[in-house]
């Protein structure tokens, strides 16, 4: 079993490219007068979140790495590090990313880490860097366990994960409209990911892909960006702070306040931690299904259009439950 | 990448982008009018029915009366943030009011009002 394998830390090496691309996007928008918006404090907050993400990797990364190396010690499999294996690892890790990302939107404990990435009302290349500081506490590193147990070396798994994040950088832009049709069909693109960042009812809980949009098409979560429903970026309840500490920890604080209210059952406390965002024991908040139901009540013509096709049964149940 | 170089890149990059954006006018606050305040409120709370909107003279905040009570909308960089006035403290501030929301993600906002506006807003913000 090979332990002494090293791969470059791709994300660190990409930092100069990130900075250059942000300047290029800003200049493009300034010269063309279209293709996105920049605001000073929003961008600075995003950049500080990105720096904090790298710092948290230095401080807490050893926990995941130790877990992965333990798995590597117990697995009898070793697929080596040939190019085809690295490519296979990249594709399977992207499938892993899809599910972690989906959990990140559907399990409040994981959402508490991921929410900060969606907390900007802007969508530009700095938004891509508005990354979590608390991913380690979600324990989502366990989703990578099957890859390592199958014989993909931990260093390779982390390397392809870094490439995945680097790919996702360029899709955080309004400066690119649509890519060629074949590319849009297979790959995650700025258009697909803009929809993912939408707080419009139509775009809630869609397009979880990292690199390949095919996962959303396979698992039924794909919603194409609609020309007649411009994406409104941010959170359903937008936060009112640029303070990076509040951005990083606000949902964790929210979980704590909700789950420690007096008079709740154990099930209700657990639901505040692990149910989908929007859960409340007294029905005072809306889940994404209820938000979609209310939207359709106001705009019945949208029934059956992308983002609303699959939810009719779910919506009826949700509305019945509410009433 | 050596840590020192990474540090220089990150700190230099953040400082450079901050300076560039500020010097090119990207620090301006969102300006509200009665019409845009209504639109912004409904963007945040699409299920609400608005009764009327009072925009502060400086254009950076609006008090919105809805069927179920009152709400506050304010400029947040180039965008806006809105909250229903349910769980909050209103504290006098030399420039108007400070509203504290008891919310870790939106702790407080200072609303700039002149003396006449302050009295009017105080009246509007009192529970019916």
TrEMBL record, chain A:
One of its GO terms (cellular component) is membrane. Residues 292-301 have a biased composition (Basic residues). The keyword Isomerase does not apply. GO terms for molecular function: glyceryl-ether monooxygenase activity; iron ion binding. It is found in: Endomembrane system. The chain crosses the membrane at residues 12-31, 43-67, 79-99, 147-170. InterPro entries: Fatty_acid_hydroxylase (IPR006694), Sterol_desaturase/TMEM195 (IPR051689). Residues 280-309 are annotated as: Disordered. It comes from the Bacteria. Keywords: Lipid metabolism, Membrane, Oxidoreductase, Transmembrane, Transmembrane helix. One of its GO terms (biological process) is lipid biosynthetic process. Residues 87-221 form the Fatty acid hydroxylase domain. It is a multi-pass membrane protein. This is Sterol desaturase/sphingolipid hydroxylase, fatty acid hydroxylase superfamily.
TrEMBL record, chain B:
It comes from the Bacteria. Keywords: Membrane, Transmembrane, Transmembrane helix. The keyword Membrane applies. The chain crosses the membrane at residues 6-25. This is Uncharacterized protein.
């Amino acid at each position: 079993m090979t332990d002494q394998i090293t791969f470059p830390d791709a994300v660190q090496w990409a930092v100069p490219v990130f900075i250059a691309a942000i300047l290029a996007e800003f200049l493009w928008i300034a010269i063309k007068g279209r293709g996105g918006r920049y605001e000073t404090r929003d961008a600075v907050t995003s950049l500080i979140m990105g720096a904090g993400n790298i710092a948290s990797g230095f401080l807490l990364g050893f926990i995941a790495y130790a877990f992965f190396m333990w798995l590597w010690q117990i697995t009898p499999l070793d697929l080596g590090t040939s190019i085809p294996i690295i490519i296979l690892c990249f594709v399977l890790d992207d499938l892993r990313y899809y599910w972690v990302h989906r959990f990140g939107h559907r399990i409040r404990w994981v959402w508490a880490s991921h929410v900060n990435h969606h907390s900007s009302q802007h969508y530009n290349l700095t938004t891509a860097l508005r990354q979590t500081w608390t991913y380690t506490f979600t324990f989502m590193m366990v989703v990578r366990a099957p890859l390592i147990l199958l014989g993909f070396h931990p260093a390779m798994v982390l390397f392809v994960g870094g490439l995945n994040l680097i790919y996702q950088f360029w899709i955080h832009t309004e400066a690119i409209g649509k890519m060629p049709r074949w590319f849009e069909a297979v790959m995650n693109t700025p258009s697909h990911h803009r929809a993912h960042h939408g707080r419009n009812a139509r775009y809630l809980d869609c397009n979880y892909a990292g690199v390949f949009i095919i996962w959303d098409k396979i698992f039924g979560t794909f919603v194409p960006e609609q020309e007649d429903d411009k994406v409104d970026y941010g959170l359903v309840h937008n936060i009112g702070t640029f303070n990076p500490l509040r951005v990083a920890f606000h949902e964790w604080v929210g979980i704590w306040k909700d789950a420690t209210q007096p008079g709740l059952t154990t099930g209700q406390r657990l639901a505040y931690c692990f149910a989908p965002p929007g859960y409340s024991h007294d029905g005072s908040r809306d889940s994404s299904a209820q938000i979609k139901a209310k939207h359709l009540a106001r705009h019945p013509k949208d029934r059956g259009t992308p983002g609303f096709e699959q939810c009719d049964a779910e919506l009826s149940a949700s509305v019945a439950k509410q009433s | 990448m050596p840590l020192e170089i990474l540090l220089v890149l990150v700190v230099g990059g953040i400082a450079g982008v901050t300076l560039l954006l500020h010097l090119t006018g990207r620090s301006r606050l969102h300006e509200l009018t009665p019409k845009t305040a209504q639109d912004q409120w409904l963007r945040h709370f699409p299920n609400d029915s608005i009764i009327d909107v009072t925009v502060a003279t400086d254009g950076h905040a609006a008090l919105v009366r809805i069927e179920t009570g009152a709400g506050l909308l304010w400029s947040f960089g180039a965008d806006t943030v809105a909250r229903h006035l349910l769980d909050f403290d209103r504290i006098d501030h030399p420039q108007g009011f400070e509203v504290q929301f008891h919310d870790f993600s939106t702790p407080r906002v200072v609303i700039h009002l002149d003396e006449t506006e302050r009295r009017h807003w105080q009246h509007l913000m009192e529970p019916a």
